[in-house]
Amino acid sequence: MQEGSKTCSRNDFARIYIEKDLFGDAVTERIVSRLPNAKIIPVSHYKDVFARSRQQYDVQKKSRSLILARNTGRLIYEGAPMCQDFDMENFSYTNSVMNCIYDCDYCFLKGVYDTPNIVVFVNFEDYQKEVDRKLEEGPLYLCISYDTDLLALNGLTGLCDMWTDYAKDREGLTIEIRTKSAPSDFISSEHIIYAFTLSPDEVIEKYEKKTPHLSSRLNAVKAALGSGANVRLCFDPLMHIEDFASVYGRFMEQVSSAVDLNAVRDISLGTFRISADYVRRMRKNGPLSEAAWYPYDNKGGVMSYPEVKADAMTDLVMKELLKHTERRKIYLWK
Ligand code: SF4
Fold this sequence. Notes:
Layout: E1 15-19, H1 26-34, E2 39-43, H2 47-50, H3 57-61, E3 65-69, E4 76-78, E5 91-94, E6 97-98, E7 118-121, H4 124-135, E8 140-143, H5 154-157, H6 159-167, E9 173-179, E10 192-197, H7 201-207, H8 214-226, E11 230-238, H9 244-258, E12 266-271, E13 273-275, H10 276-285, H11 290-293, E14 297-299, E15 302-304, H12 307-322, E16 330-332
Helix pairs in contact: 9-12
Residues 100, 102-104, 107, 109, 148-149, 180 line the site of iron/sulfur cluster (SF4).
C-alpha cells in the first residue's frame, strides 16, 4: 500500500496466481509488470486457490496473494433489496474484482469469503458484452465497485479506467463507483457517479485503518466536483463510536466547510447493517473484530444497532445535512 494515496504498491502481493491460459493477456501482463517482486504461480482455475478448504483468514491477511482469472460464470447480478439504491429500477452489480486492498473491520466481504486473497477477473470484454446485451432490455444502473474498492486498485489493474471509458457515452447505462480512496482524476459524464464514503477520522482510525484520512477523501470530492463529475456522498455506514454526538458533530462541520453540499448529486445516509449470515462468518474470520461482535439487534435476518440508537445517529447527521442542502437529495436507509 502506498502511503498518502493508500493505493496498491509494487510490494503489496508476494505471490500472483495466474490461470494458465491468461499468460500473454494484456490486462494480466499489465498487472504483472506492476508487481515485479511477486512470485508467479500458474494455476488451472482460480478456485483452486481462492476457494480452498480450511483457509486461515488471519494468517493469509499478513501476506495476501493476488489471483488473476477469467470469469466464466455470471457477470451481472440483480441487487438485493437490502442494497437497493436510490429507488433505482434495474439496480445491478458486477464483480470484476473479489475482495479489497483495504481491510475495514466491518466489511461484509469477511462474511462472504473465507480468504482475504484478491481475485481480479481480467476478461473485461466479456463484461462489456454482457452489459451491451442487458442494455437491449432497457436502462441499467450498475454498481461496478461492489465486492471491492475498484478505484483503489485502479493503478494496478486499470479496470476502473476501462469501465469509465466504456460507460461515459453509453446510452441507457449509469455506473456507480463506490470508493474510500482519494484519486485526483475524474470523468465528467452523466453516465458515471463517483460515490465517496465519508467517515470521521476517529472511525477511520478504529474501523477503516488502511483507508485514506478524511482530509484526503474531501480533497478528492472537491477535485471531482471541480471537474464537473457526478458526486454522491455516502454517510454510510454510520458507526457507533464513543462520544458519537461530538465526533459526528465535528465531522459534519469539517465536511460542510470543505464541500458545497448543494453541488453534490445526492447523499446516502444509514447506520451499519449487515445480514446475520455474514456476521456469523465475520466472527469466525475476525475473532477480535469489534464491529463483528457488537450486540446487534436481529430484525428479520438483518443485524443492526437497536432502533433508538440508530435513529439518534441518523437524526444527528440528517439535522446537520439539512442546514446545507435539501431533504430531497438525501436517501435515508431505514
Ligand atoms: S473499502 Fe469497502 S470493500 Fe474495501 S474493505 Fe472497506 S468496506 Fe470492504
